[in-house]
Structures are given as structure tokens and as C-alpha cells.
Amino acid sequence: MEILTCDAEKIVVAADRVRREFNKEKLQKLATSYKRIGQLQAGICVRSEDGSYQLVAGERRLRACRIAKIPFSFVLSSTATADMLLEIELEENLCRENLSWQEEVDGLDRLHRHRETQKEQKGQTQSLDDTAIEIESSRTSVHRDLELAEWAKEFQEVKDAPSKAEAFKIIKRFKAELVRNQLLKQAVEKSETRIEITGEEGELVEDSLIIAGTSIPKELLLDFDRRVIQGRMEEELNRFEDGSLNLVLFDPPWGVNLIAVSNLKGDKSTFEDSWKMFFTHIELWLQLIYKKMATDSHLYMFFGIANEGKEEEIPIEQESLFLGPVYGALEKVGFQTNRIPLIWYKQSAHVTRNPEIWPGRSYEPIAFARKGNKKLITLGSPDVIITPAPTMAIKGSHPAAKHPDVYLELLKRSAYPGDLVLDPMAGSGMVGVAAEAYRASKRLDWWLIEEKQEFRELALENVIRGYSKVVNREPIERPPQIADYEPEPLPEDFHELEPGGSDWIRFWKVHPEAQGQMLEWQKSKREGEGMI
To answer: 164-178, 187-201, 220-234, 423-437: lowest mean pLDDT where?
Structure first.
């Protein structure tokens, strides 16, 4: 195929060509590129009866040559090769309107690869900038579209996405799963030193895997891996739509210098735990959480009353009681409280550095806060919750691990079937352990966020092991303290009920055959309202 050249000004352009508007700035960029490296892709012309050349394809290249004041390179249509026609087809197709996003990125990918092959034959390289200039786009857009094209080739779910935005959401999820799967592998390696196992770690047994000494279906394993998120709460909360969380169980580092106490027992793992940390961040944390919580929802927040960290100078108003600042922060961001904490009594727990002088601490306060008008499920629940103290086996390598029974009690009080439950600072993951214990009866949509990789792995391992292996017994169902009142008769159709309401939970208990439909309807309604 012979490539001809001609003074660009002498090429005839028909007045009735479809494309009439060209971006001047991008034309100038292309002209600058031509001055530097020349016109690498020829246009196509035909010879007119008068001997002149008339343009068939490549008007943008012709205009760039005119600006750059260089000759225009072209081939006659009668001598154009299949390779040249393919190149023109790809470039011209990218200028078409009403392309699907799949056609658009596939065409760009083919054009870019074609240019790369051409350049390689000349000992040159085709950069993203070169392609961006050629199609009058930005380097970022070209990079994103080429990435989309690669993912669409490999994953049908990406290819079937209705838009680029949805395709990128799927890709983001796939990438996150790849990262979390790597972390899961690390958690498996660590688990071998934490517990005694039977069988080979990672062994496949009838489509299940032995992880942390527990045989678990692969699908359930991946689901747990997805729900235990590693990252900072401030960033990972963006995964959840505003107004989507029905229940939050929050255990921030509450500034009692627990590390100083734990180190006396030989614990190695640490985390930032000071009164400054707590009071510097608590209002911001609560603001972020409040925004994500549903119109009618509950929050339980553990906090510390006495501060034993005498290494720092502590303001006198914060030295003994944290009740005022804690409830003040809750109410400032919009929560309703009665300023009376729940007391979690840990039987047989007596933590103190001076047992000959002071009694040991055996309880923790929990602030209960309400957003809107969500009702408690268990009426008349006492403000004291009694559970066994968390053992060293339960704590593992996390000095602040809590017994899952306290979370079981809080879930029983406030978690309706299908509720979206979050622990934004998960630590050892006992909220997930407790929520999974209610899988059969409540099928909670639970999620955990943990910043430190080591603790995220511990949380995932605990969820995989499950309640019975973490606690070494089955969960105990404790009856409510007082009998429920006599309610009104239920309607025959659950669609008349508000998901999460007291009548909704009654219908759930009375009609187990409808529970699957109820969850699907609740999920579709949540999605329709823009929830996660």
C-alpha cells in the first residue's frame, strides 16, 4: 500500500460532510503532536476527474496538518488495505453517537491496541496521552475506559452492567474481594497458632473449607469475608447509604488506659486508648454514625467511667465521671437519651492494679440512645445486663474483647428481623459472632469495620468459628423480664406493616412460612429508598 503526501491546503473537503464541528483546543494538541512525531495514521482520499484529491476519511487529521503546516499523508481508496480500513472503522466508530458503553470501550481498546502494534513495528510506543489526543479525550478517561474493557472481557457481570458507573461499582467490589481474600489467607495462617484444630487447614471437604478448625461452606466463608471490612470507620462508613442503619453497637477506645492494665497480664496487642483520643473524636464519630442511621433506629455505646491513666494531666471535670460529656455528645448530634446508662455486669471480673487498696472493676456502662421512635422489642428490659466475664480464650489477642452474650442481649432488645446492624469499631468481632447466632431466627444484615489488620483477621476468625466454639457452649435464651401487653390483631398481609415495627416482628414470629418473602420485600423497599 502506497502512502501519498500532498499539501494539506490542496486536499478538497466536500461541503456536505456530516461532521462540521471540531474542538479547537484538541485540534491544536493534535497539531502539536504532529509537529513532534509527524502524522502516523494516514487518511483516505479519492482522485477527482480534475486530478485533485478529495478527502474520504480523516478530516480531523487533515485539519491538524493544516494547523501544523505539514503535508497530509493519505492513501487512495482503491489501494487501502484491510488493516487501514480496520483502523478507519475503529476511529470513525468512536465518533458515532448512541453507542452502548460496551461498544465504546471495546472500540477504544481495539484502536489503542492497533496503534500499539503499529508503533512497536517502528520501534516506538503508543501512550495513553497519544490515544487521548487522537480521540479528543482526556488521559484519565482513556485509562478508565481501557480498564473497563479489560474487566468486561473477563467478567460477564461487568459486561452486563447497564452503565459505566455501575460497571465500576462491580469492579470496585471485585477488587475489594481480592484484597479481603488475601487478608483471609493471612488470617488462616495466624489461626493455626491460636487454636487447636482437627484436619488440615484450608482442606476442601465436600465444597467446604476447614478454616480456624471449623468446616465452613465456601459461599458462607466469602460472605463473612465481605462483611468484616478492614479500614477506618470515617472512610468505610461511606459504603452505607445515609439513613440505612437500623442498629449500631459502638465500642470506641474510651480512654481508661486499658493497655496499662492489660500489659500486667502479658497482653501484647495494643491500640490507641486515651481520654484525649476519646474526647477529641467522639463528637465527629457520632455525627458520622447519626447520619447513616435510619429515621427510627437505636445506638448502644460502651464507655468508661473511671480513668486510671494518671500519666497524663486530666481536666478535673473529666477525672471521675464521663456521664456528662458522653451524653452531651450524643444529644448534641441529635440522639435522644435519658442519661441513665445500662450497666453490664461481668461476673467474676475484678480488674485492678492495686487489689490491696481498691476493689476490682467488674462492670461497664453502656449509653442507650434513640434516633426517632423505634420501639424496644423486649418490653421492660432491666438496666443491668449480667453475663460471664470474657475469658482469655474469648479475648484472644484483643485486650478489650467483650463476651458475645452482652451483644446477644442488646440484639434481642433492639434488632428486628432483617435489620441492618453495624459495629463500626469491631475489635475482636463479637458483634458478628452474636449476630450470626441469630441467623436462623432474625437473619440480620450485619457488618463490621475494623481499622487494624491484625484485629480484622481476629474478628473474621471469630465469626468463622461461631458462637459455640468461641464461648464453648450454645447460646442461652433468656426470657423477657415481664410479659408483653395484649396486642391488636395482626393483618393478613404483611405488606400493610412497617418493616421493623412491633407488629412486623409479631407477624414474623407467627408466620414463619412468610419470613423469606418478608425479607425480600424489606430488602426491595430499602433499595427503593436508597439504602445500602
So the answer is: 187-201
- Tracing cell 401487653 back to the chain, one arrives at 485
The pTM for the full model equals 0.52
Q: Which residue type is seen at 477? A: E
Please report where in the chains the cell 414474623 appears, as a residue: 508
Q: Determine contact, residues 210/232, Cβ cutoff 8 Å.
A: no
Computed from CA positions of residues 482, 488, 494, 498, in that sequence, does the dihedral angle turn out positive or negative? negative
Closest of 232, 354, 336, 255 to residue 290, by C-alpha = 336
- Looking at residue 206, the DSSP 8-state letter turns out to be T
In order of 117, 247, 370, 432, 499, the CA distances from 376 in angstroms are 67, 11, 10, 21, 14
Give the pLDDT band (50/70/90) at residue 508. confident
Pick from 19, 38, 171: nearest CA to 105 = 171
- Give the three-class secondary structure for 4: strand
Angle between helices 139-154 and 164-194 (to 10 degrees): 70
The x, y and z cell numbers of residue 468, run together, are: 459455640
Contact 531, 244 (CB under 8 A): yes
Q: Looking at the predicted structure, is the pLDDT value of residue 429 above 90? A: yes
DSSP string, 471-525: HTSPPP-PPPSSPPP-PPPPPS-GGGSPTTSHHHHHHHHH-GGGHHHHHHHHHHH
Cell of 106: 471495546
Scanning 212-274, the segments in alpha helix (DSSP H) are 218-227, 233-236, 258-262
For the segment 382-408, the average pLDDT, to the nearest whole number, is: 81
| AA letter at 267 | D
- Mean pLDDT (the chain) is 77
